[in-house]
Amino acid sequence: MRKKFSTINILDEICSSNFDQICQNFSEINYSKGQLIYDLDHNEDLIFIVKKGKIRIYLALEDKEFSLAILEPGDIYSTHTRAYVEAVEDVTLLTMPTEKFHLYIATHSALSRTIISVLGELLKQSFSIIENLVFNDISGRLINFFLQEARESGQVTDEGIILNLDLTMEQLATIVSASRQTVSTIVNSMQRANILQKQRRGVFLIPDLDRLKNFSTF
């Protein structure tokens, strides 16, 4: 899966001068790091936009969790899915009842097109996540994550591609649906093989994408 849920910043779109009235009708709510914001038992039907911080969208079955996305400022989601929503760090959300939001976008065709584009990205990512979980082990999911980030946001240098993930090892583990210890072990193996170089917290250098793609921990 990708770290960034969408390439479109809905917050910038909605709070532009064209949609001032919509922006002013969102309610602002704060949550603390680690707090479960929405679960399967909630009865609120809301659209929400991340204003500050990061949240994790995930599915849970018995003792297993499957991460769907890490939402960052500008990302939009809704509460009527069967997913859990958790604050990865201190978070501020802008919320609005779904029905009220639908009324706004029905009368603003430009905003409606933007929302459709975001939903299209979500659907595409959902299929990628399912494929990744079904056909890849943890090592494969981690490799795919690094490759995806390298293609979408990596900084090309003479030494290789730099990834500024801004993630702790624990957060990285939640993204690939694995334990922190397992992810740490795999990352250490990559470093020993010079597949991955950790420059500082959350920042990695990939010297060769092909070597990363073909890396095996076995």
Automatic annotation (TrEMBL):
Residues 10-78 form the Cyclic nucleotide-binding domain. The keyword DNA-binding applies. Residues 136-210 form the HTH crp-type domain. CDD domains: CAP_ED. GO terms for molecular function: DNA binding; DNA-binding transcription factor activity. InterPro entries: cNMP-bd_dom, cNMP-bd_dom_sf, Env_Response_Regulators, HTH_CRP, RmlC-like_jellyroll, WH-like_DNA-bd_sf, WH_DNA-bd_sf. GO terms for cellular component: cytosol. SUPFAM superfamilies: cAMP-binding domain-like, Winged helix' DNA-binding domain. Pfam families: cNMP_binding (PF00027), HTH_Crp_2 (PF13545). Keywords: DNA-binding, Transcription, Transcription regulation. This is Carbon monoxide-responsive transcriptional activator CooA.
